Amino acid sequence: MITDLTALLQKLNAIVRADDNWGTPANYIPELARINPEQFAITVITADGTVHSAGDADTRFSVQSITKVFTLAIALGRSGDQLWHRVGREPSGSAFNSIVQLEREQGRPRNPFINAGAIVTTDEVLAGRAPRDALAEIVQFVRTAAGSDDIHINDAVAASETQHGHRNFALAHFLASFDNLKNPPEMTLGTYFHHCALEMTTTQLAHAGRFLMGAPDMPKLISTARVRRLNALMLTCGHYDGSGDFAYRVGIPGKSGVGGGILAIVPGQASIAVWSPGLNRYGNSHKGTEALATLARQMNWSIF
Ligand code: DON
């Protein structure tokens, strides 16, 4: 087993760049579609706080659905288990933006990580406030978790998604038709699009994930029981209809975003952020997934 993590990440970076298949960036958000796919970054922070990085680890990217982990943590903090009346905890087996299950299951999304479920958790965080107040809470939570105030929302990305977010508008209005939205759909969606447009580097994101490691000396933002539950949901639902494949190949909890980032946690041992904007057929980072599979194998990291 290679234990010089920095050397291993540099080797991984070289292997990743040698392969021509970079995948395709998300095309339904124009601001993301124009990003150069030929980029890769990885950061690993171990339990003792050591930071190891390789590649474009200082480049900011749109974290998108990875923010759903943070909004879920906040929603559970505000509402506790009441939240589960509005959203389930089962893998969906459907694409992240699918609408079909929502009608069959009377407007209760399968889990908080598919778009419909994340719109519900955002609605819970919004709780009748002005969107800017809910966003301030979300941004502050992420900054506290990351230990950095230099984390911001990219308004151009949020505007780009607002203009082209017909599916999310459909999902939000569908939720409202089942009385599963407490705020006007446009307000909940405005909050949702803006928190998805948060930008971070892999270094910042790996720092922000440390509270999910459940190790001593980590930021204690939520209870240990809740840390375990968030990790369970990341493992079972964090990669949508690719969650089983990710669990099989990588073997640790992870949450992907359509910007090409993945936050992965080795409980008690490491917080990992990887980024490469080209996506696979599930809408998860192609090279990010490959790199995590190799890293987990080389480090003998698995929850199983
Ligand atoms: O709602 C959307 O479609 C995006 N803001 C987030 C989707 C996403 O990141 C899916 N992840 N792979």
From TrEMBL:
Protein keywords: Acetylation, Hydrolase
InterPro entries xref list: Beta-lactam/transpept-like (IPR012338), Glutaminase (IPR015868)
Main enzyme class: hydrolase
Residues noted as binding substrate in the record, renumbered to the chain: 65, 115, 161, 168, 192, 240, 258
Enzyme Commission code: 3.5.1.2
GO molecular function per UniProt: glutaminase activity
Annotated GO biological process: glutamate biosynthetic process; L-glutamine catabolic process
Pfam families, sorted: Glutaminase
Catalytic activity field: L-glutamine + H2O = L-glutamate + NH4(+)
Keyword Hydrolase: yes
Keyword NAD: no
Subunit text: Homotetramer.
Family affiliation: Belongs to the glutaminase family.
Protein name: Glutaminase
